[in-house]
Amino acid sequence: MTSTILTTPISAFENLVDYPFEPNYLEVDGMKMHYVDEGKHHTQTIFLLHGQPSWSYLYRHMIPLLVNAGYRVIAPDLIGFGKSDKPLSSDSHSYANHVDWMTQFVRKLGIKHAAAFMQDWGGMIGLRVLAQEPEWLDRLVVANTALAEMKGLEKFLVPKVLKVMAAAAGKTDLVKFKNKINYGNWAGYFRHNPQPEIGELIQSLSIRYLSQQEMLAYDAPFPSEEYFAGPRKMPEIVADDLDAVNQDWQSLKQWSKPVLTLFSDQDPFLAGQGYDEKFQQNFSGAKGQPHITVANASHFLQEDQSTQLAQKMLMWLEETKYKQSGVAA
Length: 329
Known about the structure:
CATH topology: Rossmann fold
Radius of gyration: 18 Å
CATH class: Alpha Beta
Number of helices: 13
Helix content: 25-40%
Oligomer: single chain
Domain AB hydrolase-1: 45-304
Strand order of the largest sheet: 2-3-5-4-7-8-9-10
Protein name: Alpha/beta fold hydrolase
Number of strands: 10
Keywords: Hydrolase
Order of helices and strands: EEEEHEEHEHEHHHHHHHEHEHH
InterPro entries: AB_hydrolase_1, AB_hydrolase_fold, Epox_hydrolase-like
Organism: Vibrio aquaticus
């Protein structure tokens, strides 16, 4: 097992700017899954789920605000990302496996009736976990994420179209991606670059200026080429496992707890595409909620508007009487 699993040396994470959090680990399929766990003395929990190619560092500015407001905050690193272990083989990084790993994580923690903020693959994975574990959450915030629900011709065509787009993009470097940000160039960049510049990519999808130290912190989990199997594979599996995704959507449509959408106005992938409206229409708990479009924010809105996001979530939890609904198990 050890020959197929990589662990980023802990020295890579020393003295990260604005990330003073102690590491915590759970074992998932023989691998260590890292998570931030702050405010453990508080009774109700907020989960913060990141996507590709980021890690829990993305939430460094939101975590203290949520803890200071009286919540326990748990921010896990996906397997293959951050301080979590990293399978060497890209074949390990299937959509189904990532859902299974996060489901195991949630079950082992045993926390129920929590709240969650999900962005990017954090939503694509986390929503499917919620479909399997409906008592895990009582409140849900989705931001700049999507969950495919495809049937008939669409189910047949979309995966093929995405593969064509990725192939047509060819060898995409950072300059080409920044000049034309779309799915094809994103997939092409990760497919063809031996060691993707994660910090630079996060910057290209953020409006706020990131310091060199912050960009290096995003690079930290991946000290050499072989560590990149997770982020390299994810662009290729966005339309995988569609039968299971469709089934999970049917379960999610029965989940009636309050849902809030916070999508960015300048996300080059998702802005103006109606993904926020799809969540609003499919979740009965989203009806009548104070959904907003977050202004002056790109795809990684946690970098651009962290204070606003935390405040909006906290106000909404108060408005929906989350703390009066009971305590986490």
